[in-house]
Design goal:
137 residues; alpha/beta; 5-stranded mixed sheet
Length: 137
């Protein structure tokens, strides 16, 4: 596993919207800032990772989102990420944005994609459950 210091993390929500996704995003952003880590919001889940749709998130951007439904980052399923070429493009975008690790918020499909990506590219990934399907054990 990669042992370098983490300076930048990417956070995304994937799969179907579920309660608590915004609270998890807010917590990741605020905690990252507390530790001097730059949080990069990745929009529309894995699809945003493939397309490079991401930006630095400030604490003020996550203020007042806990009570909102859905996810401020958006969520989408990505057929492109399921291909080797799609994951390669996602890795190129991670390198371009100097992201050292990922926080994936979602369910079983999200975590399966995260595991494959971590195994292929040695990118550390932390998973936060965000699912209404009761599919995580």
């Amino acid at each position: 596993m990669n042992n370098k210091k983490i300076k930048r993390i990417g956070v995304f929500t994937s799969g179907g919207d579920s309660p608590g996704m915004n609270a998890a995003v807010r917590s990741v952003v605020r905690t990252a800032h507390n530790y001097g880590i730059d949080p990069i919001g990745i929009y529309h889940g894995y699809e945003g990772l493939v397309k490079g749709d991401m930006k630095l998130l400030e604490s003020k951007e996550v203020a007042g989102i806990i009570q909102r439904g859905g996810t401020i980052l958006g969520s989408a399923r990505s057929k492109t990420f399921q291909t080797k070429e799609g994951r390669e493009k996602a890795f190129e975008n991670i390198q371009k944005h100097k992201i050292d690790a990922l926080v994936a918020i979602g369910g079983d499909g999200t975590f399966t994609g995260a595991t494959v990506f971590q195994d292929e590219y040695d990118v550390p990934v932390i998973g936060i459950p965000g699912t209404i399907d009761n599919d995580l054990f």
